[in-house]
Amino acid sequence: MKLSHLKPAAGSRPKRVRIGRGHGSGLVKTAGKGGKGQTARSGGGKGATFEGGQTPWFRRLPQRKGVSQKSRSTVIFRTTYTIVNLADLADWDAKTVVTPDALREAGLIDKPRDGVKILGGGDAPSKLRFKDVVFSGPARAKLEAAGATFEE
User: Fold this and answer.
1) Which residues are paired to 82 by β-bridges?
2) Which residues contact 131 (CB under 8 A, 6 or more apart)?
3) Could you tell me which of 111, 117, 56 has the C-alpha nearest to residue 86?
4) Domain 77-151 classification at class level
């Protein structure tokens, strides 16, 4: 037994039917397409959207007059902040001003998006200075109590 002698089992791989190739093919007159008409032609048939002659569903629908604002995405109007908790600023040097660029250099944020927001999670470090940063209510209260200064 050699690899060149291997063949599939008899009948497991039927011979391909060659349509429209004359008498020797066994499909002479209509080439396996039945009778005449639309379905016997090349590219013939009704198409996937044909519904037997009734008005198709896409023509029964009311016509759209422009684009509905209800389905419009409102994501482009949102302000997306990068979040930093007070606990992340625990070992921050008080001499350095906390800005989005300084936070990125320190590795606390990847990108500032529409801005940086400080949330009140954790204890507030004392006497920090902030610039170009937004605060939640509890975070601002904790920072004011800890003696932080805010530059607008």
Assistant:
1) 116
2) 97, 98, 99, 150, 151
3) 117
4) alpha beta
